[in-house]
Design goal:
about 300 residues, alpha/beta, Arc Repressor Mutant, subunit A, D-Maltodextrin-Binding Protein, domain 2, 7-stranded mixed beta sheet, two-stranded antiparallel sheet, about 20% strand, elongated, LysR_subst-bd, LysR family transcriptional regulator, transcription regulation, DNA-binding transcription factor activity, DNA-binding
Length: about 300
């Protein structure tokens, strides 16, 4: 590949580690070092400060990093356009997803894509909405799928499906014994929450703010699995996506609390997020089609 040295340099610059870059690229560390030395010889200057404690770019290295990102993006676009002419979906697709989407929707979608497009390489990064938006803005992702709100001025946003949110509790919890749970019933409960920056946490905070609910106490977990386990163990109640609790409902480990419909509408949007100046590749179009197909089934 004609831009392989630049891709290796870019990876070292981003990871700040020769060994981590070698691991990510499935290369030997001496091989990575050789590519960097060859680049330094070509440009006639040192590009990277390297010591036992740190790896940092020199001023010349900073310039090359910025240009390398642009060159690699242009090369990828050219390759994609040529593949489109040939009606072949190849190359790579970097998808970022917040936890609910990444853990409960994307595995099925990626499996469907793999069956149809065997030459397409897909990598998935799962983190909370805030972290995914940051990775997208820094061009570490091609497209993002989130359930939380992101800046509409920086990104292009497109809703692709509605997600049903439910209030859950362990069997035998006092709220599960009521036919309809009112605002008064929900006062001074113990809540299980996701971490700040999570789309689920944002929805929970908005829910409590709108209803002006007072909590007795709260516990914070940084994953859907942690929230579910805490509720199953009797620690408290939680607002979660219905997608993540289907197995627990069947097993009788969790109960959906029946809210009075006048309390609040429990639904949110799943959103496709991309940068306005990013070239929309054939691989991204394929993902978009799979997402819309999934939303029609749901």
């Amino acid at each position: 590949m004609i831009i392989e040295p630049l891709e290796i340099f870019k990876k070292v610059a981003e990871e700040k580690s020769f060994s981590k870059a070698a691991e990510d690229l499935f290369l030997s560390q001496p091989g990575v070092s050789l590519h960097i030395r060859n680049l330094e010889n070509e440009f006639g200057t040192k590009l990277i400060y390297r010591s036992s404690k740190r790896v940092e770019l020199t001023p010349a290295g900073e310039i090359l990093y910025q240009q390398a990102c642009q060159i690699i993006n242009l090369y990828t676009q050219a390759k994609e356009k040529i593949n489109q002419i040939q009606s072949i979906v190849t190359g790579s697709l970097r998808i970022g997803a917040s936890f609910t989407i990444g853990e409960y929707i994307l595995p099925e979608l990626v499996s469907q894509m793999a069956a149809k497009y065997s030459k397409l390489d897909v990598s998935v990064t799962i983190a909370n909405t805030e972290e995914i938006a940051q990775d997208l803005s820094q061009n570490r992702l091609d497209i993002a799928l989130v359930e939380g709100r992101v800046s509409a001025t920086e990104f292009i946003l497109e809703s692709f499906m509605e997600d049903e949110m439910v209030l859950i509790a362990p069997p035998g919890h006092p709220l599960t014994l009521l036919n309809k749970v009112t605002l008064k019933n929900m006062e001074n409960q113990i809540w299980i929450l996701r971490e700040a920056g999570s789309g689920t946490r944002e929805f929970s905070d908005h829910f409590m703010q709108i209803l002006k609910l007072k909590m007795q106490h709260s516990y914070v977990f940084s994953s859907n699995k942690g929230v579910k386990a805490a509720v199953v163990s009797g620690l408290g109640i939680a607002l979660v996506s219905h997608l993540i609790i289907e197995k627990e409902l069947v097993a009788g480990e969790l109960v959906v609390i029946p809210l009075d419909q006048e309390v609040v509408r429990l639904a949110r949007e799943f959103v496709i997020v991309r940068l306005p100046d990013n070239y929309f590749t054939k691989a991204s179009e394929v993902l978009l089609a799979e997402l819309h197909g999934y939303s029609r089934k749901s």
